[in-house]
Write the structure tokens for this entry.
Amino acid sequence: MWRCSSFLSSLVRPLNRRIHPQLAWNRFEFAQHFVTTEILSTANEGVFSKRTSPFIAFVLGGPGSGKGTQCMMIADAFKFTHLSAGDLLRKEMVSDGENGAMIRNSIKEGKIVPSEITIRLIQKAIESSENYKFLIDGFPRSDENRIAFERIVGVEPDLVLFFECPEEEMIKRVLSRNQGRIDDNIETVKKRLQVFHTLNLPVVNYYSRKGKVHKINAVGTLDEIFEKVRPLFAAFRMGRGIDSEQARGEFLSQF
Ligand SMILES: Nc1ncnc2c1ncn2[C@@H]1O[C@H](COP(=O)(O)OP(=O)(O)OP(=O)(O)O)[C@@H](O)[C@H]1O
Ligand SMILES: O=c1ccn([C@@H]2O[C@H](COP(=O)(O)O)[C@@H](O)[C@H]2O)c(=O)[nH]1
Ligand SMILES: [Mg+2]
């Protein structure tokens, strides 16, 4: 399991990964970079201040664009651990913790929960996982979220998926989701769409400039969309043994 000595108190420099000068996405040398991530100084130790770091894909898109649905399919096909920031917050909301009421109110209003709360939940989930490949669904929601994640956790995503979907389609899907979510109503959806445009999209633009974003047209059947997603992950798998016992063993042996 992953261990973290002092989480919020430790300010961590982003890991200085050796990134091949090709397009970040087409890094078939993923596994190599995966095992050559440099060690941070002990003084800056944080959860990922290990000799290696996990493979992280951020999965972004507007409300109802299909992030969660596709993440489940990717996780199943490629053995990723799916961490939905929204699901983690909803669990925390009903857990009787001190932030429950605030989280409920933020979700109801379509507002973004303070970064340190969401990051703590994501980090805890990563730490308690034996896996080393994570889909982080619905996070970061703002540049502030992104910067806090990079500072606290100390890693950047290896890849960012962005599900692009017309607004009318997103609204239709959310309103027919029928899972009892307190934000699946037209008032909240309108607010969430506003937040999506003003705060979420700048994150996508930031990672686009870094060549990490893979935009997927999210209109179509689940299988049609998954067929557009599949090659991205298959490429990593075909690379230098992302899924080999050796790569996994080398990774886990660091802990
Ligand atoms: N390609 C699709 N076509 C039609 N319906 C879809 C498609 N993908 C997902 N859905 C449905 O749309 C609804 C929203 O999907 P999902 O929960 O995956 O979206 P999301 O991006 O995770 O949304 P949120 O940000 O609100 O959590 C669900 O009821 C899901 O079954
Ligand atoms: O990083 C995050 C993720 C989510 N939220 C809040 O939760 C709701 C629902 O999120 P979904 O990803 O759509 O399940 C979102 O509108 C925010 O209020 C957050 O604050 N930070
Ligand atoms: Mg979702």
Remarks:
- Confidence is low (pLDDT under 50) at residues 1-51.
- The chain is about 45% helix and 10% strand.
